[in-house]
Amino acid sequence: MDSGAAAGSSSRTNRSTLERERRMRLRNLYSQLASFLPPQPRKMSTYEMLEQVTVYVNQLRKRVEELKQMKLQVEEECREMRSGPSLISPVINITELDSTLEVNLIAGMDTKFALCDIISILEEEGAQVLTATYHNTGNKILLSFHYQAAYSRIGIENVGVHERLKRLHIS
């Protein structure tokens, strides 16, 4: 008979231990769930917390969807900008560097001109081209020419070079 009483009490302690562990697990789960919510000014009941979390998670889902749509729009606009015609107006800059001069041209990809035409203009104006560099960056073309006067006594008229390059129909 003692063995039956001992077995009954051990099964009761077993059940109470299981129930205690179950409550602890639920408490931990509720705590994790509450951590998803922004800080609350007052303590909420479990039911209120579940309602708040449900509403908050749905709001976050909507916000994520909005952000995904916005991202797709921005990516599409970027693709269109890269593939579409460039609206960059050409920029011509002439700088004097000691005995040499530098011409920098920045133009859009849709700009039509020939590199040899630019070099011809510089040579016709009395320049000897020392270096010419060409760089393509996305939707821009960058050209840089270093030149010096072919005849140092004559020199080069920067205004004339600038005007002729503008007339080349770079724009």
Automatic annotation (TrEMBL):
PANTHER family on file: ACHAETE-SCUTE TRANSCRIPTION FACTOR-RELATED, TRANSCRIPTION FACTOR ORG2-LIKE
Residues of the BHLH domain: 10-60
MF terms in GO: DNA-binding transcription factor activity, RNA polymerase II-specific; protein dimerization activity; RNA polymerase II transcription regulatory region sequence-specific DNA binding
Pfam family of the protein (one): HLH
Keywords of this entry: Coiled coil, Nucleus, Transcription, Transcription regulation
Coiled coil: 50-84
Naturally occurring in which organism (per UniProt): Durio zibethinus
Family annotation (PROSITE patterns): BHLH (PS50888)
Record region (Disordered): 1-20
Stored SMART domains: HLH
Compartments, as annotated in UniProt: Nucleus
InterPro entries: bHLH_dom, HLH_DNA-bd_sf, MASH1/Ascl1a-like
Listed name of the protein: Transcription factor bHLH167-like
GO cellular component: RNA polymerase II transcription regulator complex
